[in-house]
Amino acid sequence: AAVKGDCRYRTDSPLRPESPHIQLPSRLDFGAVEQLHARLRSARHHDCVLDLSAVTYVSALGIQLLAVTVSRWRADQKNLSFTGRTAQFCDSLKCLGADFSTLLERG
């Protein structure tokens, strides 16, 4: 089930239809981070949508990658939107002592 409050950390301009849309894997662990990092690198300097709807598990390395991604998009002054946040995604963050709002604030 989707969690209310999908968010964009920047909302001053709308995302364009051609903005990269990246579906994150169900397990954001060591095995998936390298491939996701490559996809994020190719989307850098563009507004981007990260779809979390399939994510059921996030490792500490996965959280680190998401935090660095937020930081890079913020530095580039580009919009980064997270959509499809699920209860499993949020629970996975909580198990590691993190939460979604902190991820966005400190990214």
Report the principal-axis shape: globular
Structural class of the helix and strand makeup? alpha/beta
Main sheet attributes: strand count, strand direction, barrel closure:
4 strands, mixed
Distance between the termini: 25 Å
- Strand tally: 6
Unreliable spans: 1-13
Instruction: Please estimate the helix content.
Output: 40-55%
Rg, Å, rounded? 13 Å
Give the topology string: H per helix, E per strand: EEEHEEHEHH
List the strand order in the largest sheet: 1-6-4-2
Descriptive report:
The chain is of the alpha/beta class and 107 residues long. It contains 4 helices and 6 strands. A 4-stranded mixed beta sheet has the order 1-6-4-2. α1 (30-43) runs parallel beside α2 (60-75). Mean pLDDT is 83; it is low at 1-13.
Structural key phrases:
107 residues, 6 strands, four-stranded mixed β-sheet, single chain
What's the gist of this structure?
By secondary structure, the chain is α/β, with parallel strands linked by helices. The protein is 43% helix and 16% strand.
